[in-house]
What we know:
The protein is an alpha/beta fold. The chain has helices spanning about 15-25, 40-55, 75-80, 85-95, 105-130, 150-170, and strands spanning about 5-10, 30-35, 60, 80-85, 135-140, 175-180, 180-185. The radius of gyration is 16 Å and the shape is globular.
Amino acid sequence: MANHTLITGGARSGKSSLAEKQAKNSSGRVVYIATAITFDEGMKDRIKKHKSIRPDDWVTIEQFKGFKGLSKNLAFLECDIIVLDCITLMVSNLMLESGLDFDNCNMEEVDKLESYIFKEIEGLLEVVDLHNKEIILVTNEVGMGLVPPYRLGNIFRDIAGRVNHYLAREVKSVYFMVAGIPMKIK
């Protein structure tokens, strides 16, 4: 089991801050993989604020898929530690990019999409391990809220939950954030 970390918790619980603190405390060079897509002014402002608090020597890669291609990225090859923020945005981006009509699609189509999402996650871990990198993964805990009243929300919650289960098994350390307080649970 590689020395990877998963940080989970609710929205605004301090997940990103903990990931960034852990990366800053490492002695290595850091690459920050941002999976967000700028789709409105609110997200544009959020991304700008996130970037402004990162150290100047951190390289940011904006990417939510195709991680095997990182083997050709010089910044990735030269770094020691990666912060990926966040897995749940990655999952939602892949779901929306699929073009599925989530109100009317069948479960076979959903299963194919989930399989594709897992291949992306597995590809990320493979390239990180292949190049002996450490990764800190940020994800939202999706299992503590209400059951979404619409099908897309249910499908997202189920896929993101299974992705989180998988990642928690694959990493060495898991932290759960509540009100800015980290609790190590693995």
